[in-house]
Amino acid sequence: MITIVDYQMGNLRSVQKAIERIGGQARFTSDPHEIAAAEQLVLPGVGAFGDAMDEINRRDLAPAIRDFVDTGRPFLGICLGLQLLFEEGYEHGTHRGLGILPGEVVRFDLPDTFKVPHMGWNTVRKTSPSPLLEDLADETHFYFVHSYYVRPADPSVMSLACDYGHEFCAMVSRDNLFATQFHPEKSQANGLNLLRAFNALNVHNVPGT
Question: Do you know which PROSITE patterns this protein is assigned to (predicted)?
Fold first, then answer.
């Protein structure tokens, strides 16, 4: 059973439907105790960094999310759910994130020939191994919708890179923690394959456990 964190900042149903399509089971929760008891956890998100952290803190979910990651059980962040893992985001001011990964979230600063947000299909390339990417070919397409991107302080956590005006981090992997800037639930067969690989993980077969 995959537990999806509900903090009113994303289309949770589309994530749930994608998980069910690959044969998994998923439920929503905004209860810290249910997060603590989850087998696998997904943190999705669409919207502004500061608003998202306000909602997470209002529901007292931040400690539960951090503690879950520390247990070694599989964790997946999606889009804003990737960005919130970092220390600071600069959307409409400076906001503290969950601080699980060192680094920051910054806005694309690109020539006028590039539209922001970065929206639509783009290709990725592997930069480091990840158990979610073992069957992924280079130049695989995924679907992106974002105006901000993460700059990890530790480049070794980046497992996929993407180019939009310049290279940016499209996915991070560290032990049991995985997070994507793209939306696997909107990325057709490629996204479903990634979710299928995540669904197959458990605390006994993720790196670092």
Answer: GATASE_COBBQ, GATASE_TYPE_1
Q: Where are the domains of the chain?
A: 2-199
Supply the pLDDT for residue 206: 61
CATH code, 2-199: 3.40.50.880
Q: Which residues are catalytic?
A: 79, 183, 185
Token pair, residue 146, equals: 């974002």
**pTM of structure:** 0.94
